[in-house]
């Protein structure tokens, strides 16, 4: 059985009671870590992960640890499956990336992430029986116009939400999702209520998730020097 | 114990496994299994939501 130091996140080096994981501090920053059995992380099955699959259980726990830090301090979440050799390695990492991580933590201090998704309408099959060619074309034109209107409304929603957020990260529009964006906003704002209101005004059905720790704004790659 | 979130599994896996800062270098123990999952999941998530910009 091989063991390693699983790293969940980086935060400020301040006292935190995490009931399990602990902090390895260095120069004002700290890695949130716990010793794990590496065998638990091999061979995880991704085919239709269910709530009680090993992957789901480990990922939920990872999220719970990140959140318990997030409730008190700014947090830089690390990607699932980050395992260090030991406490010395943790200190080396914090030392090598001190400035970068400090700046990042300042950027997300007091902020949280909200996810907003607008799904494309389900396409119903056109019933061709008894439909004249003219009626078919009219129906098709109407559908295209409707789809276009929804797409424009989603773009307007994104523009207005962007004005209320500090930053946003979007996935490309697909056939299924017209808008799938994470917004980084001040914790005190009424962002989800505003998003609901704006979507209703625009006649859009939205799915809003959050508040999340700033998972989607972690486009940093930390390599030890 | 840290509280467990109630977010949907897809949203959760999207964030926890697909996002989050990546640590590289000799401080990290390579977990072959996780690297493989990461590849699989990236494909899965592109299928669901498009590549992240």
From TrEMBL, chain B:
Chief place of localization? other
Superkingdom of this protein's organism: Bacteria
Which UniProt key words apply to this protein?
Gas vesicle
Q: Subcellular localization, per the record?
A: Gas vesicle
Q: Per its UniProt record, what Pfam families does this chain match?
A: Gas_vesicle
The record, for InterPro entries, names: Gas-vesicle_GvpA-like
In Swiss-Prot or TrEMBL terms, this protein is called Gas vesicle protein GvpJ
Organism annotation: Lentzea rhizosphaerae
Primary gene name:
gvpJ
């Amino acid at each position: 059985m091989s063991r390693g130091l699983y790293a969940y996140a980086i935060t400020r080096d301040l006292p935190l009671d995490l009931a399990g994981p602990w902090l390895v501090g260095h120069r004002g920053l700290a890695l949130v870590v716990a010793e794990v059995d590496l065998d638990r992380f091999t061979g995880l099955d991704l085919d239709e992960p269910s709530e009680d699959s090993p992957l789901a259980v480990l990922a939920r726990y990872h999220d719970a640890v990140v959140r318990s830090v997030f409730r008190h301090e700014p947090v830089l979440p690390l990607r699932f499956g980050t395992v260090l050799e030991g406490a010395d390695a943790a200190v080396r990492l914090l030392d090598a990336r001190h400035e970068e991580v400090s700046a990042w933590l300042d950027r997300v201090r007091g902020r949280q992430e909200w996810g907003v998704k607008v799904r494309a309408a389900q396409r119903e099959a056109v019933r061709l029986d008894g439909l004249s060619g003219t009626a078919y074309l009219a129906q098709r034109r109407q559908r295209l116009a409707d789809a276009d209107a929804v797409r424009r409304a989603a773009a307007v929603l994104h523009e207005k939400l962007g004005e209320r957020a500090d930053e946003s990260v979007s996935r490309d529009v697909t056939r299924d999702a017209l808008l799938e964006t994470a917004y980084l906003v001040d914790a005190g704002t009424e962002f989800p209520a505003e998003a609901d209101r704006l979507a209703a005004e625009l006649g859009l059905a939205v799915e809003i998730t959050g508040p999340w720790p700033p998972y989607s704004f972690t486009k940093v790659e930390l390599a030890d020097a | 114990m840290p509280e467990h979130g109630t977010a949907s599994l897809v949203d959760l896996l999207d964030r926890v496994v697909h996002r989050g800062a990546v640590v590289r270098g000799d401080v990290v123990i390579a977990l072959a299994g996780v690297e493989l999952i990461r590849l699989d999941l990236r494909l899965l998530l592109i299928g669901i939501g498009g590549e992240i910009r």
